[in-house]
From TrEMBL:
Family annotation (InterPro entries): CaCA, CalX-like_sf, Calx_beta, NaCa_Exmemb, NCX_ion-bd_dom_sf
Native organism: Chlamydomonas schloesseri
Protein name (database record): Calx-beta domain-containing protein
Keyword Calcium: yes
Biased segments, Basic and acidic residues type: 545-557
Region of interest (Disordered), residue spans: 541-562, 578-597
Alphabetical UniProt keywords: Calcium, Ion transport, Membrane, Repeat, Signal, Transmembrane, Transmembrane helix, Transport
Pfam families: Calx-beta (PF03160), Na_Ca_ex (PF01699)
Topological relation to the membrane, as annotated: Multi-pass membrane protein
GO cellular component: endomembrane system; membrane
Location in or out of the cell: Endomembrane system
Amino acid sequence: MFMDGIMSICATTRLYKRKNDKGETVYVREPVWNWVVANITLMALGTSSPEIMLSLVEALLSLGKPAGELGPSCIAGSAAYNFLVISAVCTTALPNGQFKKISQLRVYITTAAWSIWAYVWMLVVYVWWTPDEVTVAEAFITLGFFVLMVLSAYIVDKQPWNKRNNRVGAQSASDPEAPAQPGVAAVIEGGRPAESSGADAHHALAPGEAPVKTLAHYRHILAARQRNAAAAARRHHGGHGGGEGEGESELTLLAFSAAGFGDAVVRVDPTKEQVMFRSQAYAFLESAGVVRVAVTRVPPEGGNLDHPLRVHYKTEDGDAVAGLDYEAREGTLYFAPGESYKYVEVRIIDDDMTEPDVHFCVVLTGAEVPPGAAGKGKGQEVLVAQERVRITIVDDDEAGVIGFELPEYEVAFNEKRTFAEVTLVRRRGADGRVTVDYETQDMTAVAGTDYVGAKGTVVFESGEKSARVRLQLLQSFVPEAHKALRLVLSNPEGGAELGKRRACKVTLVQRQFTLLPNAAAAAAGQKEGLELVANGSLKLAGSDNGDKAEGQEQGKEEEGEEPFDLWAEWRDQIVSVFSPDDGDDDEGGEGEGEGEQQKVSWAGLILQYVNITWKLILFTMVPPAKWRGGYPCFLTALASIIGIVYLVNEAGSLFGCIVGLKEVMVGISIVALGTSLPDTLASRIAAVADPDADAAIGNITGSNSVNVFLGLGLPWAVCSVYYRVRGEKYVTPGGDLEFAIMLYAIMGGCGIVILAIARYFGGELGGSKVRQYCVAGLLMTLWLLYLILSGLRAYGNI
């Protein structure tokens, strides 16, 4: 629940005025929270809250008594475990020969430097400045370091000295392959679409997400599995949304996003002839030779294709380089009258090198009806609905696993939208032509009354990784009674297999909506049309406060939308406590379609009812994350964590007494392991799911810094002020903690050097299995040395 609140807060977006490369004023939709600031503040509270709260609770309980060592020891032990053990676990999680690097290297270096300084600062306070005493000045300087760390990381990310980076469509100087500007496609004042340059000009991140997904996203997957889970993810890598007006036309901007699909953005305008790629993403074997990418043209409503058409295209580098990985192409496709498909052919260059998957893009740069062409198309405007498609070059010879992109879709429609599109995805390989059958099944919706029953076959050509099934909807059902149907996959052929998500639920919701004629009205904060949100639902976009998070309901009734029912959400949240949720689903752990009963293991049932008391207490106290932007959920869950941490504090102290361990050893080993175990599992998921190492290990250094600056800064500030008012000194004996901190600084520095060397030879994570186990072995050895030497010191042996 705590992570739900954080993800809801970070998902808030609004419209901002920006300048593009041409100096034109454009409106872009961006997250309210910068991803770096969110990572180090809100996300750190999520991943580091146990350590921070443990230290704070222990300090509050010890007011007027001798200070304890469990909280500070836990912070030191967690830092060593986080950096050394989690990095070791992540580097062995990748397949043989695959590499992953930290992409936001400047931010990582900044937070790494702060993480080392944080523990050096602990030595300054405990030993060098005022030995065995913490003053008010030291406490507030520690909190000030947290502000400085956030500010320095933000400046490094934004690079204000590079004015080009502050323009829409500009590439990051720190990472030329990074997405340009977080947000959605820009609109120039007056309603004209903005023209952007660069390979990633149309890339857009999900509101609240970073260019890479954060560790909190993956911890959220492990802990919550709520329907409003962001990322997530689900990134990798994010959904887009938002409407943009163009003159008097009704133009809806939909952004289709599946895991690893890149920058596919589709503009839909049924009044114009449209040109787009057949698939949202392609993947080909390196040995495929010449590959073909299908381009299709779609007639306007009530129109036809009785005229010729010219479509211009070119290739653009991603991390694949023309001349090294593929042969660059640029040219024109000529569609004859009545012809709906053409192919762009690109030659893939094969080599014998072991390397990670790379990608490039095929871009449609324009389309027009030739001058003097006969037929109805003369003078007709043609819309390039999908300007680019991502081509991934892989070494995979598997036919792939087919399933639905999402377990549930909610489709809002009226007389202007009478269809639903459901996306199928093909993962773990894309070699060869495969097919899969689909069929609709009635739930509360009835075929022939609420929708047109469908049964057919979906074809994935070689290299295609996504396909769409369109369902025709009818207008006969009662709007107040939402109805649902199921779409089921079966009979895969061509070597493909069905994944876990072989069924999905489609809920029909009837709503009214209007579209703005231009972006100026959008900037005023009014409705913008339909958008595809993270859970796959089509909903009304925009609000008078700059748009809430994707997939979130508003807390008040707005025109054309149903009000958010707090008590119904809260009731459902409590009822869900009694439903066991066992096992991870593919791609982030989302479950099967709701109409399909899930199998639950005995272990899942036992854990469910062992934890049911805690679940009832917490789910009863904590309000839904969708309410009021997530802030009540966040604050209430934070208060609950304080109570739980109090019990952890008592249990840790009692266990140490029983087995005869000193409090400092309990803190750096058992308690540190317990508080960091969820992050270990989340980091391993991130290492496998993300295209880079940022979410897996890049966030560790920032989290370790926050552990000190907040985990010690907050209790120091409270206690030092308390004793200052009483005219006493706040005595905090360093004891064996001095040695543990100094030892961590040495071991952490060695760990940074090991990862830097690994990066130089391919990437921080992965490589051959021999290399993976060598790197992991070195990191684990450093951690064991840390524990052994700390223990010997604690018991007076060294």
